[in-house]
């Protein structure tokens, strides 16, 4: 087993060497790597890069990470426009509308996903791009871009003038405040069904391969809008599903942990604040048991740090009715690791997660015991087995 | 022919340009980007976004003057101009 690790300063891989997990630099030295993962169908490695000066770039390796090259690049079509907050006016008396229409340009490649014969890329601002020719060409999914929740069709007309998609702090390093797609969950049993999650809007689902999309936010509760049960405006941090039981869907949200056992048709809040399980970024689901999931809890949205300086993972095996803190092998004092949304993964009983303080931990027994696989790495953005 | 010099940082991504004498036929900065793209496919999207605007953290100087038109890159380039393309320093 090995895991691919995207960091602020390059792509790393961790592998077991002589009975111990070891990290090594595997490309993109000095470059920001938001997400790196292999396409299980082809074996090609894909990396979403964020160059400070040169923009967001997609990189691929066809030789297991020995060499990398620029892939076909993702660009918004010339007629892609979206609603954004108006720029501040110099005139204090001037009234402004809530939004203006602006041409879209790529700010960030945030997440990659793979289905049979299809590569998915989630971007900021709020684009879903797909390729059906192994990355030869990527196209924007127009029905999602033109969804009524974000103002309707701006390709052919001026739309409704109202968007329910708000900005994410993950866009701030681009100098703008825009929404982004960070979760793409493809149903392995029915690849025409795909869930996407947007910070900050909520979850949408297609069951026709992307031709149409609908809201999947029933039962969601936020704790920052006038209407906690509003259809839109939710802040999923990460959404994933159980690969072999895809009707079981898990969501770590800004406002708690949510679970659905009916394919995201309805959600219920399964946080356990008394055990620290509420706020966090990543969530992983068991492929073979839809009722089992793992989170890495953090302290409140205001603090975004470990609880009492102790790092732990929490596991449920009963659909979130109860949570078990898993601490063996993890630092329990003076540890302030924050784990980002793409930096926890599970595969066949093995878990791995990495933190913004460059530490990486692995468990080979479903989280019961942990080993430190790396320290002093750059801030970690993503961890994916493959 | 304008003489174009690139920051060494770009040679990481386009090693074929390293050590190359970049004497380009160009009347504007937009022409310079177009001519560079012919020699190093993909470089235009490093310098500009998909709408052809110079990226926020990229600077272009023509004969020691920073260009004024970052949207359409219509600044004039003379037959013996020196064009310098660098990353903008953003602090640190």
In short:
The complex is a heterodimer of chains A (386) and B (92). Chain A is built from one helix and 30 strands. Chain A has 386 residues and is mainly beta.
Can you characterise this structure?
The complex is a heterodimer of chains A (386) and B (92). Chain A is mainly β. Chain A has a single domain, classed as Methylamine Dehydrogenase, Chain H. Chain A has one helix at 142-145, and strands spanning 2-7, 10-17, 20-25, 32-38, 45-51, 55-61, 69-70, 81-84, 100-103, 108-115, 118-124, 127-131, 139-140, 180-186, 194-199, 202-206, 214-215, 236-242, 245-253, 256-260, 268-269, 279-285, 293-298, 313-316, 324-326, 344-347, 350-354, 360-363, 371-374, 380-385. Chain B is α+β, with helices and mostly antiparallel strands and 92 residues long. Chain B has a single domain, classed as Beta-grasp domain (Ubiquitin-like (UB roll), Roll). In chain B, 17% of the residues lie in helices and 22% in strands. Chain B has 2 helices and 5 strands. A 5-stranded mixed β-sheet of chain B has the order 2-1-5-3-4. At the A-B interface, loops of A face helix 2 of B.
List strands and helices in order, with pairings.
The complex is a heterodimer of chains A (386) and B (92).
Chain A (H helix, E strand, L loop, with lengths): L1 E6 L2 E8 L2 E6 L6 E7 L6 E7 L3 E7 L7 E2 L10 E4 L15 E4 L4 E8 L2 E7 L2 E5 L7 E2 L1 H4 L34 E7 L7 E6 L2 E5 L7 E2 L20 E7 L2 E9 L2 E5 L7 E2 L9 E7 L7 E6 L14 E4 L7 E3 L17 E4 L2 E5 L5 E4 L7 E4 L5 E6 L1
Antiparallel strand pairs in A: 1-2, 1-30, 2-3, 4-5, 5-6, 6-7, 8-9, 10-11, 11-12, 12-13, 14-15, 15-16, 16-17, 18-19, 19-20, 20-21, 22-23, 23-24, 24-25, 26-27, 27-28, 28-29
Chain B lengths: L1 E5 L16 E2 L4 H11 L3 H5 L10 E5 L2 E2 L15 E6 L5
Parallel strand pairs in B: 1-5
Antiparallel strand pairs in B: 1-2, 3-4, 3-5
Summary keywords:
heterodimer, A: 386 residues, mainly beta, 4-stranded antiparallel β-sheet, B: 92 residues, alpha+beta, Ubiquitin-like (UB roll), 5-stranded mixed β-sheet, 5 strands, globular
């Amino acid at each position: 087993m090995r895991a691919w690790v995207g960091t602020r300063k390059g792509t790393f891989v961790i592998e077991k060497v002589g009975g111990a997990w070891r990290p090594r630099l595997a490309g993109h030295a000095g470059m920001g790597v938001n997400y790196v993962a292999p396409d299980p169908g082809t074996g090609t490695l894909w990396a979403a890069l964020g160059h400070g000066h040169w923009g967001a770039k997609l990189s691929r390796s066809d030789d297991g990470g020995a060499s990398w090259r620029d892939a076909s690049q993702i660009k918004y079509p010339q007629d892609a426009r979206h609603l954004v907050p108006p720029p501040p006016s110099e005139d204090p008396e001037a009234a402004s509308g809530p939004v203006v229409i602006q041409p879209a340009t790529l700010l960030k490649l945030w997440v990659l996903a793979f289905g049979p014969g299809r590569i998915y890329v989630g971007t900021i601002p709020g684009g879903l791009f797909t390729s059906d020719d192994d990355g030869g060409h990527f196209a924007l999914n127009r029905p999602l871009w033109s969804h009524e929740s974000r103002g309707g069709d701006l390709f052919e007309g001026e739309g409704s003038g109202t968007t329910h998609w708000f900005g994410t702090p993950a866009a701030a390093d681009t100098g703008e405040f825009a929404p982004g797609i960070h979760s793409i969950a493809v149903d392995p049993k029915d690849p025409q069904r795909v869930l996407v999650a947007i910070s900050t809007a909520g979850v949408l689902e297609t069951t026709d391969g992307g031709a149409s999309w609908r809201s999947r936010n029933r039962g969601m509760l936020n704790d920052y809008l006038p209407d906690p049960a509003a259809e839109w405006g939710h802040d999923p941090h990460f959404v994933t599903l159980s690969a072999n039981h895809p009707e079981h869907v898990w969501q770590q949200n800004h406002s708690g942990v949510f679970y659905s056992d009916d394919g995201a048709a309805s959600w219920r809040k399964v946080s356990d604040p008394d055990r620290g399980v509420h706020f966090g970024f990543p969530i992983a689901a068991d492929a073979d048991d839809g009722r089992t999931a793992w989170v890495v809890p953090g302290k409140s949205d205001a603090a975004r740090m470990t609880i009492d300086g102790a790092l732990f993972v929490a596991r449920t095996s009963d659909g979130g009715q109860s949570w078990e803190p898993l601490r063996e092998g993890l630092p329990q004092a003076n540890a302030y690791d924050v784990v980002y949304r793409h930096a926890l993964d599970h595969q066949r009983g093995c878990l791995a997660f990495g933190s913004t303080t460059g530490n990486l931990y692995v468990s080979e027994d479903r989280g019961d015991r942990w080993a430190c696989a790396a320290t002093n790495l750059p801030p970690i953005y993503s961890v994916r087995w493959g | 022919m304008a003489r174009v010099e690139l920051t060494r940082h770009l040679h990481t991504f386009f090693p074929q340009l390293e050590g190359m004498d970049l004497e380009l036929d160009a009347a504007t900065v937009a022409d310079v980007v177009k001519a560079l793209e012919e020699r190093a496919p993909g470089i235009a999207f490093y310098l500009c976004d998909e709408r052809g605007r110079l990226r926020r953290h990229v600077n272009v100087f023509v004969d020691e003057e920073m260009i004024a038109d970052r949207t359409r890159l219509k600044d004039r380039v003379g037959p013996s101009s020196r064009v310098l393309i660098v990353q903008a320093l953003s602090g640190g």
